[in-house]
Amino acid sequence: MTRAALPFDPIDRGAELWANSYDEVPRMRAITSLMRVHQLVLTELDDLVKPFGLTFARYEVLVLLSFSRTGSLPLGKIGERLQVHATSVTPLVQRLAAAGLIDRTRHPDDGRAVLASLTEKGRRVLQEATDAVVSAKFALGAISENQSDELSSILRNIRLAAGDF
Question: In which domain of life is the source organism classified (predicted)?
């Protein structure tokens, strides 16, 4: 779906209006821009992986499993590493399993835990989806590699201050 561009920047306009009543205009503009860019990038990433039967969240699960030594992880670890609540992991894993991209098995050492493991089909789909995401420069083609590094550094400071790691 193509959106019609507005004839003005709504974030700049919002900042002007904000300034009439409140302080912290630069931070208000920054957070509003960050949230809007998040929406735009996530939409593009979802569109990129959709032809492979994925959402970006499901794609992230496949990537995480591919990075594990054995190609499998307990569902709790998936949530921990993706920094999402365990209740969010279950539906992702169920959809991936229904599509034949992962297998779910009982953990051999912990009967209560479930392991998610990449299937061969999952590895193929992951590779094809990754090729699409990389070709699209992770939806950040509008900025240079140096700007990407700078953005990562700025955002890292916020994550660090929030106790993210």
Answer: Bacteria
